[in-house]
Structure formats: structure tokens, C-alpha cells
Design brief:
This protein is mainly α and about 300 residues long. It has 13 helices and no strands. The longest helix has about 35 residues, at about 80-110.
């Protein structure tokens, strides 16, 4: 203790430090408890079902641990092929959303308009409407007697007895509706990355003789890649397991991996196979998220 330190100060400092040491566990206790109860424990239950090791099964009797469901799934089953079909559809939807949302976000962030936040609010206004209503509206648009076919009948391009049936209950309908639903959400992270762009970099590129296209390809686009990747993930992760939209507008050809999981649990009552499919989807999404997060960190370090 220092000579000029008043008596009793050191015990007070130690007591204050002890109280501070309990602050972090106290603050993290509730979120961690929530995570354990509503995330880790349910995943553990699903994992137990996937190896037929849970005695709370809908079928009575003993359930020895078995990996048969995993072997059947990974051995080239129809469920695995359906997963890759859903991945391809999600990749197309995600890429289409990014391509369509990027010009909108670019205009809002870099055009210099004073009403960009008002326009941004207009862009996300569809989120104020029920997701189910927006999907059902497309059934009216794409149906055999819907808006598109009615226009074709009116213009004489199509006979009323021969409507374009491929518009609804098809893979095309699923991807179209998913792209429509997610484009406003995709524009947000791209807008944030472009809005935070240092305008002096564009001015410097112009002073060095770069055209507007060269400045875009060499300055704007590379610096907005983190927002583009985040936007891509925001679409890909939920759509690869989507089952509501395919159920409403997909039909047999638009059947996706999420529909298979839902049917296994609700209709077939095959919880073991359904758990395998669900855990496989969770694992793939987790790996992709980790890879993209690592990619973004490397780009940020390189940019710094």
C-alpha cells in the first residue's frame, strides 16, 4: 500500500472489483440461459431423434442407438437429391435478388438525393404486409385466370382455352415469389455498405483519370462486397429450407427440401429421418456461414 493511501481504501477497491467481476456473468446469464433452453436443448433432442436414441418417441418400446437413417440419407437417397435441388434454387434466387437490389441500393446511397431514407422506407414497406398475403397475391397474378393470363387473353396472344399453366405450381413460380419477397430485405445491407463508403475515394479515382465505370469496378464494388455477401446469405439461408412458399405456389415441381422435412414430421411421422434432414441442413448452413464470415474478415484485414 502506498504511504499516502488512506486507510480502508484498499479493501473498498477490492470489494468493488469483486462486484465488477460478478457483473459479466450476471449480464450474460440470461442470454446464455435463453440460448441453452431454446436452441441447444432442442437441437440435442433433434439429434437424439436422428439416431433413434430418445425414449420420448411416438413409438413405444426401447430405441437402441442406430445410424441407419444417416447412412440411408448420405448414401444417395432421394432426400439428398432434393436438398441439392433446393440449393440450386436458393442460389438462383439469392443471385437474382442481389443483382436486382444492388442498383436500387446504389441509387439510394450514392445518388445524393435528400429523400433517400424516405425512399428506403418505401422500399421496405412491403414488410408491413403479411408474408402470407403477399404470397397468396401471386396466386391471383399467376393463376390460369389470373392477371397475366387475362392480359394474354385480352391481347389475343393466348386462347382462353389454353392458358399458360406453367406460371403457377412450378419451380419458376417458387423462385419468382421468393425473389419478390426478399429483394427489399437484400437491399438493406448493400445500402448500408454503400452509404458508409468514403466519398473521397471516388473523388481520388476521378482525379486520377478513372471513368465512372472504372471507379465503380475498382473502388465501389470491391468495398461493397461485405454488404453483398451479407445480403446473399440473408436470402440463401432462409430460402434453402423454405416450405411455406413452395406449398402455396410450387406444386410437385416446386417441392423443396423444407417441404420434405415438414412432411416427414407432420404426415409420415418419420421423426428419425426428419431429424436427420433437419440436422444436415443446420450443419450445411453453419459451415457456409462460418466460411463466409472468415472470407469477410480476410477481406477487411486486407483492406485495412
Amino acid at each position: 500500500m502506498a504511504a499516502d493511501e488512506p486507510a480502508g481504501v484498499a479493501p473498498q477497491i477490492r470489494a468493488r472489483r469483486a462486484r465488477l467481476d460478478l457483473t459479466t456473468p450476471g449480464l450474460l446469464g440470461l442470454p446464455l440461459g435463453w440460448l441453452v433452453v431454446f436452441f441447444l436443448i432442442p437441437i440435442s433432442i433433434v439429434g437424439a431423434y436422428s439416431v433413434d436414441a430418445l425414449y420420448l418417441s411416438i413409438y413405444p418400446g426401447a430405441h437402441p442407438v442406430t445410424l441407419d437413417a444417416w447412412r440411408d440419407f448420405l448414401g444417395g437417397s432421394e432426400d439428398l437429391r432434393l436438398f441439392w435441388k433446393s440449393v440450386k434454387m436458393s442460389l438462383i434466387v439469392s443471385g437474382l435478388c442481389v443483382l436486382l437490389a444492388y442498383p436500387v441500393a446504389y441509387y439510394l446511397a450514392l445518388s445524393g438525393t435528400k429523400r433517400k431514407y424516405v425512399l428506403l422506407l418505401v422500399l421496405i414497406a412491403p414488410f408491413l404486409t403479411s408474408y402470407l398475403l403477399r404470397v397468396l397475391a401471386w396466386k391471383v397474378i399467376l393463376g390460369s385466370q389470373g392477371v397475366v393470363n387475362s392480359f394474354l387473353f385480352w391481347t389475343g396472344l393466348r386462347s382462353p382455352d389454353d392458358p399458360v399453366s406453367q406460371l403457377l405450381y412450378s419451380r419458376f413460380a417458387v423462385m419468382l415469389v421468393l425473389a419478390y419477397v426478399w429483394i427489399p430485405f437484400v437491399a438493406l445491407p448493400i445500402f448500408v455498405s454503400l452509404d458508409s463508403l468514403d466519398r473521397r475515394l471516388l473523388e481520388a479515382a476521378s482525379d486520377l483519370g478513372a471513368s465512372r465505370w472504372q471507379a465503380f469496378w475498382r473502388v465501389t464494388l470491391p468495398l461493397s462486397i461485405p454488404g453483398v455477401v451479407a445480403a446473399f446469405l440473408f436470402v440463401f439461408i432462409p430460402t434453402v429450407g423454405e416450405f411455406v412458399t413452395p406449398s402455396l405456389v410450387g406444386g410437385n415441381s416446386g417441392y423443396m427440401y423444407g417441404n420434405d422435412i415438414a412432411d416427414l414430421f407432420n404426415m409420415s411421422l418419420d421423426w428419425e429421418t426428419g431429424s436427420v434432414l433437419a440436422l444436415f441442413l443446420l450443419g450445411v448452413v453453419a459451415v457456409l456461414t462460418a466460411v463466409f464470415a472468415r472470407f469477410l474478415q480476410v477481406r477487411q484485414v486486407a483492406a485495412g
